[in-house]
Amino acid sequence: MTGHPANGLDDVVHQRVRLGILTIAHEARQVEFGYLRESLELTAGNLSQHLSVLEKAGLVTIEKGYAGKRARTWITLTAAGTSALREEINQLKLLIHQVDGTGG
Amino acid sequence: MTTRPAGAGEEPQRLLADHQRLARQVRAAQRVTWFPLLVLAAVTFAAVPVYGLGGFARTCRDQPGGGRICTLYSTAALVYWPIALVLAYVAIAGFYLRRNRARGVGTRVLPYVVVGIVIAVVTGTAATWFFTHPPVRQYHLVLLDLGPGHGDLLFQLFSPTCAIGLGLVALAVVERSRALFFLALAYVAFAFVPGDDLGWVLTRPSPWGGSPRLVIGGTVLLLAGLLFAAGQRRSRRGTA
After folding, report:
1. What is the domain range of residue A29?
2. Segment A73-100, tens digit of pLDDT
3. Could you tell me where the DSSP H helices lie in B34-138?
4. Which residues of B fall within a CB distance of 8 Å from A9?
5. ipTM of model
6. CB B218 within 8 A of CB B166
7. How many domains does chain B have?
8. Rounded-to-integer distance, Cα B116 and Cα B167, Å
9. Hey, are the CB atoms on A35 and B13 less than 8 Å from each other?
10. Is residue B9 one of the residues assigned to a domain?
11. Mutant choice from A11, A13, A16, A102 vs B, greatest count of B C-beta within 10 A
């Protein structure tokens, strides 16, 4: 393994939708499924698949409940999710810095 | 954001730009700055009759070098402010929680509410103590060296205006709002403008003497609340 920042990228997090989910969950503390679906312009099925990947990786927790009679699903970032997001952003900044530095 | 496939070849610039855009969008959805400003404006306006119609008390103490130093204060206001501010912060917390849950996002307001309540209780207690114990000797307060000649500064530091301003500084940090931060600093500075009546009342002493400060403070909060409401509505439409 070399010291290139691309080697530090986590395939679970280094993906537009999943990075978006982690970003929103980080800013919102807790985010509802419907808000994520609208913000990321995804279908419910597609979002569920990405959430499942993140949940299996231990980066988010998913909690189902009710607001009145309406079923709601809340997503919360775990400590591992916060670290993974921070690491991904650092690696992205490093990559951009390297590309800019080499004039690419 | 699209649903097209992506992998390790994602362009870093675009990913980072998306990350920043989404973070801004969530912050815009979470901000309800206008509500605390309007609640605090209402609390400030409601204080005018509390001072005007409530009773006043006077406490005098002998100074070590001779002579006496006296304070004249509104007993009703000393009770009103801590209770009104704590209730205001509870209402603000409830509103943020309900509003943000309805929008589908969590809230960051709780640190502001806790800081606001602590400041309200501390300043209320300190003001009560200083009014009933006029400063006859030197006080060392953090970086300040205060004595009998600096009584005004003590009362301004522990005034409700200063408490509201400091609370707003906390809200500005929580909401990462530069505009609110400068407004909060200006409001704290306003608490230190000398003269309770700002020189506007010709007949003294009057129980209504503090009204100009309260009316000006309340009006600033009211106008700021309306401006933030308009700005945040526009911002949400823009990021939606």
Report:
1. 10-97
2. 999 999 999 999 999 999 888 888 877 7
3. 34-53, 75-103, 110-132
4. 8
5. 0.84
6. no
7. 1
8. 5
9. no
10. no
11. A16
